[in-house]
Structure formats: structure tokens, C-alpha cells
């Protein structure tokens, strides 16, 4: 890609240089046409003045002398021939009649004595009758004193200098710019190769805000997602292996004991095996739940406007029968109408899991749902009157498969870990306050970007 970009710049530079040459050619051509036109205008003015110097069948030498003097000033060597072929007057005759100072200046301008070449002939007419002939040729001049030649030389020098500056500068810019453009692409290529080798920690630093910068940010988000997914997969496989090992070991032990006759009551042994099978089924169901949850971690859900009061009340109405079966109350605080923009599917899973967790650990009293604004964040709070969580175990409750010691609820320890990961995916945070035998309070904060 670097080579292609560099060659593209070279092509542009070559086109620019070619256009400079064309421009120079056109300028010189226009200048030559202009000079030729001016000289033609001057010559025909001289021709007209010479014809005007003939009157009454004779030439007026004073008028002719002035006209030839002016013609010499514009670089013309003039001879006037009458109709009989005799010379009337010439540039040399006029020059000899000048003062010494004027003659010196004329010699400085022209090499009069060295002027050679044939004359061009132009007939002179008066009232349709030829009265003579004008012979003309250019005087030989010093090259450096030719203004048109000086202009052409300077124009040529300007073109060459501009080509050198523009071409050299463009070449340097092409090298630097191609390097600048391809560097982030090269970094992306190297990073992609590391991702392919399993290094998901690689990130690209990009300060630009153009399309390449956006591509780098997208790559970083992809790498972060892959890293998190790989971490979740490794962690999940480790936890699954650990959780499966215990019931399988118990089942194997009981089955061997039954076969060896160690356990005389085969029915009791089969009950234990059946209990462990139920535990395995529950574990598989939990794995399915967390797999479904993880799929939502990486899917970009649609954000819609939600009335939090109606949303939480509807969710509470759905779950209230479960709380009544256990003799518990489930209430929702009455607040002012609050609208936020959020991923409803993720938000519902978060609140439902927290409520399910509260239902498991609450034996009397009830659970209350509250919501509102705190600073720049919006919060949803679920508080219960359950058994509470020991202070030293609060930092651990969001770990997968972690269960509070002595809880005895038969859970897998997956609900709160799913809650925390979903909250982080939504860009929020979760806080826990709890006291043993008094209850727990879970508060989820959603960033103001999710609120209207």
C-alpha cells in the first residue's frame, strides 16, 4: 500500500511538472505573438509615415529623416528607393546627420556596421500609384540588451527553479505523507497478526479523528471484546470443570459403594445419586443461562425511551406471585415520572436477577424497589429484609459460582455475576450495602448518557 500511495503521488507530481512545461510553452508562444504583433504595428506605422512623406511628386527629406530615426530606435535598418530605382535616403545617412552624443548611443544599441542580411521589400503607394519602395531589415543587437530574450531567459529560469522547488518538495512530501498514511495501517496489520496468534491485550494508540482513527477505535473495541470473551470462556470452563467434578465424584463413589455392597440400602444410594443428577441438571441449566447472558454482552441492543415507573411496576407485578407464595411483600416506590433511554432487555435481566436473588435470601418482611436521580446518574435500587451478607464476603458475591457460606439455597452463584457484567456493558456500576440479619441493598447506577 505504501508503494501504491507513493506511486500515486509521483504520478500527480509528474502531471504537475508536465503542466508546468506546457504552461511555459504557452507563455513563450503568447509572448512571441505579442512581440510580433507589436513589431508589425510599429512597422506599418513607419510604412504609413514614409508614404505620407511623399507629396507633390517629391519626397520631404525632413519628415523622412524623422521617420527613419524613429524606425532605427525600434531596431529597423531602412532604405527608401524612388520609383526610378534611386536611393532617396537610408538609415546610415540619417545616422551620419545625428549629433555625436546621439550617434554614440545609437552605436551602443546596435551593431550598425555589422548588420547583414537581405532587405525585405515593401512597395510605397500614394493614391493607388507606386511612388517607391521601402527596404527594411532588423539591426543586429547585443543579446543581453534584447528585452524579449531577457524575458524568455528569466521565464525559463523561473520554470526550472519552480520545478526544482515544487518537484523536490513534492517528492519529500510524498515520502513523508505516504509514511504518515501507511503507518496506522501497518500498526493495524501488526496488531491483527498478534490477535490471530492469541494476544488479545494489544491496543492501538491513535490521535487522529479521521476514518483511520475511527478504524483504530473499532479495532480496539473488537480486541477488548475478544479479550473479555476469551477471559469469560476460560473462567467459565474452569468453573464448570470444578462444579462438575464434585457431583460426578459423589455419583461415582455411591455407585461403587452400591456395587461393592458397602451400602446395604440400595434405595438410599440411588436417592443420593438421583440428588446429584438433579444438581447436574441445575448446573447445566445455569450454564445455559450464563451462555445466553454472555451472548447479550456482545450484542448491541436497541436503546429506547423507558418510563422507569411503569417499567419497574410492570416487572414487580410479574414477580409478585412468587413473593406472595413465600409470604413476602414486593413494593415499588412512588416517584415522579422519569424517562431514560436504555437497553430494555439488559435492564430487565439486571432487575429480575437482583429480585430473584432477594427472594432466595429473604425469609420474612419483603423487598422494595426504588429509583431516582443522584447527581448526573440515574439509579435503580432493590432492598430486602433478608439474612444479609457478611462484610468480608461482599467483594466476592459477584464472582461466578460463588455462594455465601451457609446460605443453603441451592443456587449456582451465577445470578449476581451476570448482573455485574451486564451493568458494566451498559456503562454503569453497582453498589452493595448489607448487614447480617438486617438485609441487603443493591443499587445500580446508569450514566446520564442513558437518560433524557
TrEMBL record:
PROSITE patterns linked to this entry: HAMP, HIS_KIN
UniProt-annotated location(s): Cell membrane
Residue ranges of domain Histidine kinase in the record: 239-450
Transmembrane segments: 6-27, 158-181
CDD domains: HAMP, HATPase, HisKA
Enzyme Commission number, as recorded: 2.7.13.3
Keywords: ATP-binding, Cell membrane, Kinase, Membrane, Nucleotide-binding, Phosphoprotein, Transferase, Transmembrane, Transmembrane helix, Two-component regulatory system
Membrane topology according to the record: Multi-pass membrane protein
GO cellular component, one term: plasma membrane
InterPro entries: HAMP_dom, HATPase_C_sf, HATPase_dom, His_kinase_dom, HisK_dim/P_dom, HisK_dim/P_sf, HssS/ArlS-like, Sig_transdc_His_kin-like_C
Catalysed reactions, semicolon-separated: ATP + protein L-histidine = ADP + protein N-phospho-L-histidine
MF (Gene Ontology): ATP binding; phosphorelay sensor kinase activity
Domain HAMP: 179-231
Protein name from the UniProt record: histidine kinase
Amino acid at each position: 500500500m505504501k508503494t501504491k500511495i507513493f506511486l500515486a503521488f509521483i504520478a500527480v507530481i509528474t502531471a504537475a511538472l508536465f503542466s508546468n512545461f506546457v504552461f511555459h510553452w504557452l507563455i513563450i508562444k503568447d509572448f512571441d505573438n505579442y512581440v510580433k504583433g507589436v513589431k508589425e504595428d510599429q512597422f506599418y506605422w513607419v510604412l504609413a509615415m514614409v508614404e505620407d512623406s511623399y507629396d507633390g511628386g517629391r519626397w520631404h527629406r525632413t519628415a523622412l529623416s524623422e521617420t527613419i530615426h524613429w524606425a532605427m530606435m525600434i531596431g529597423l535598418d531602412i532604405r527608401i528607393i524612388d520609383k526610378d530605382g534611386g536611393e532617396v535616403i537610408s538609415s546610415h545617412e540619417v545616422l551620419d546627420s545625428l549629433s555625436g552624443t546621439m550617434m554614440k548611443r545609437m552605436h551602443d544599441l546596435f551593431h550598425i556596421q555589422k548588420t547583414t542580411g537581405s532587405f525585405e521589400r515593401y512597395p510605397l503607394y500614394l493614391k493607388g500609384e507606386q511612388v517607391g519602395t521601402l527596404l527594411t531589415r532588423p539591426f543586429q543587437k547585443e543579446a543581453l540588451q534584447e528585452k524579449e530574450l531577457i524575458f524568455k531567459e528569466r521565464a525559463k529560469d523561473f520554470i526550472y527553479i519552480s520545478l526544482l522547488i515544487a518537484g523536490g518538495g513534492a517528492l519529500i512530501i510524498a515520502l513523508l505523507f505516504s509514511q504518515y498514511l501507511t503507518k496506522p495501517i501497518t500498526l493495524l496489520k501488526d496488531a491483527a497478526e498478534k490477535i490471530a496468534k492469541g494476544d488479545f491485550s494489544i491496543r492501538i494508540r491513535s490521535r487522529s479523528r479521521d476514518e483511520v482513527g475511527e478504524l483504530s477505535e473499532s479495532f480496539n473495541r473488537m480486541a477488548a471484546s475478544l479479550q473479555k470473551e476469551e477471559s469469560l470462556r476460560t473462567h467459565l470452563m474452569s468453573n464448570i470443570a470444578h462444579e462438575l467434578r464434585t457431583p460426578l465424584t459423589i455419583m461415582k463413589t455411591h455407585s461403587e459403594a452400591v456395587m461393592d455392597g458397602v451400602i446395604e440400602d440400595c434405595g438410599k444410594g440411588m436417592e443420593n445419586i438421583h440428588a446429584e443428577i438433579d444438581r447436574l441438571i441445575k448446573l447445566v441449566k445455569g450454564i445455559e443461562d450464563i451462555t445466553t447472558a454472555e451472548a447479550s454482552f456482545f450484542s448491541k441492543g436497541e436503546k429506547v425511551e423507558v418510563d422507569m415507573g411503569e417499567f419497574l411496576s410492570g416487572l414487580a407485578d410479574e414477580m409478585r406471585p412468587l413473593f406472595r407464595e413465600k409470604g413476602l411483600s414486593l413494593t415499588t416506590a412512588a416517584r415522579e415520572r422519569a424517562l431514560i433511554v436504555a437497553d430494555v432487555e439488559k435492564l430487565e435481566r439486571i432487575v429480575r436477577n437482583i429480585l430473584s436473588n432477594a427472594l432466595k435470601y429473604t425469609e420474612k418482611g419483603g423487598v422494595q424497589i426504588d429509583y431516582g436521580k443522584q447527581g448526573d446518574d440515574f439509579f435503580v435500587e432493590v432492598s430486602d429484609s433478608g439474612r444479609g451478607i457478611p462484610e468480608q464476603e461482599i467483594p466476592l458475591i459477584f464472582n461466578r459460582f460463588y455462594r455465601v457460606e451457609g446460605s443453603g439455597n441451592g443456587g449456582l452463584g451465577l445470578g449476581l455475576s451476570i448482573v455485574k457484567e451486564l451493568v458494566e456493558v451498559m456503562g454503569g456500576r453497582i453498589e452493595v450495602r448489607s448487614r447480617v440479619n438486617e438485609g441487603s441493598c443493591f443499587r445500580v447506577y446508569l450514566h446520564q448518557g442513558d437518560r433524557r
